[in-house]
């Protein structure tokens, strides 16, 4: 698979490009995806990232089972290795977990078909999920006597009500886009031919905001939501202080007073 990246204005579109395997991920694919996302985080020209799959059948169907066979070594040994070291012994599940990459730029999943297993785990790590009406979603691991290894159960419990999350995790059932919308797994459903235009419209609105403020909001959401009110309010006030004297915040206040569109530079 190629991990294709193109940039339109300040929006990077990352495409999982293996439609012949429904965009299933091999170990080299996962390594390339991680490298691309980390590079985009450090690219000042990029303010928002869109993640999607090539073709109209699939966003991502998780790991490519034909190319991610179990290692011959015990997990008791390889499980204590670093992520990259474990890869050399055939380990791949931790590669789907993007948390260690510290990606603070917003990521929108444009879900254009099957979003299954590790593919759903990837999508749930995105900040917004917009689905085509033909999209479908599942964590089917229990059907092959396994579990979602990249936090899929926990992500579901944070994304949707527990009753729906547990039903999906325990049955492995697949749901359609309309149900995914009703339970809050995705924010919008659009017709397939309008998916990318709808996603890009949202991405452009995000990219037009103060880039440091947008990243700060994401960081607060990910790092402090588990805290008690006193502590998460303190962290929010601290982040406000970090941004208080930034050029962008001053520009935003001036633009508001002058009734014009602000021009932000991420400084």
Explain what this protein looks like in three dimensions.
With 267 residues, the protein is of the alpha/beta class. It folds into two domains: 2-207, 2-enoyl-CoA Hydratase, Chain A, domain 1 (Alpha-Beta Complex); 211-258. The chain has eleven helices and ten strands. It has helices spanning 27-41, 75-78, 83-87, 118-124, 152-159, 162-171, 177-183, 195-207, 211-224, 229-244, 247-258; strands at 2-8, 11-17, 48-53, 58-60, 107-111, 114-116, 128-132, 136-138, 175-176, 188-190. The strands form two sheets. It has a six-stranded mixed sheet, sandwiched between helices. The protein has a four-stranded mixed sheet with strand order 4-6-8-9. The longest helix is centred in the C-terminal third of the chain and has 16 residues, at 229-244.
Question: Which short descriptors sum up this protein?
Answer:
2-enoyl-CoA Hydratase, Chain A, domain 1; alpha/beta; 267 residues; 2 domains; 10 strands; four-stranded mixed β-sheet; Enoyl-CoA_hyd/isom_CS; Enoyl-CoA_hydra/iso; isomerase; six-stranded mixed β-sheet; Enoyl-CoA hydratase/isomerase family protein
């Amino acid at each position: 698979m190629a991990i294709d990246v193109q940039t339109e204005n300040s929006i990077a579109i990352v495409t999982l490009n293996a439609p012949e395997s429904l965009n299933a991920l091999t170990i080299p694919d996962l390594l390339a995806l991680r490298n691309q996302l980390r590079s985009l985080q450090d690219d000042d020209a990029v303010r928002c990232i869109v993640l999607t799959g090539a073709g109209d059948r699939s966003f991502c169907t998780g790991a490519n089972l034909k190319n991610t066979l179990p290692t011959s070594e015990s997990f008791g040994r390889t499980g204590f290795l670093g992520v990259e070291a474990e890869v050399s012994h055939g380990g791949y599940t931790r590669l789907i977990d993007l948390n260690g990459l510290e990606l603070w730029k917003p990521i929108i999943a444009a879900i254009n078909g099957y979003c299954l297993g590790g593919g759903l785990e990837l999508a749930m790590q995105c900040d917004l999920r917009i689905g085509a009406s033909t999209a479908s979603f599942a964590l089917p691991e229990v059907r092959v006597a396994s579990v979602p290894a990249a936090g899929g159960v926990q992500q579901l419990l944070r994304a949707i009500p527990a009753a729906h999350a547990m039903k999906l995790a325990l049955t492995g059932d697949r749901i359609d886009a309309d149900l995914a919308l009703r339970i809050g797994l995705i924010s919008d459903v659009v017709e397939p031919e309008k998916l990318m235009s709808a996603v890009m419209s949202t991405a452009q609105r995000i990219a037009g905001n103060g880039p440091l403020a947008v990243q700060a909001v994401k960081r607060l959401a990910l790092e402090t939501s588990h805290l008690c009110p006193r502590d998460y309010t303190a962290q929010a006030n601290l982040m406000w202080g970090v941004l208080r004297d930034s050029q962008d915040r001053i520009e935003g206040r001036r633009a508001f007073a002058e009734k014009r569109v602000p021009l932000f530079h991420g400084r």
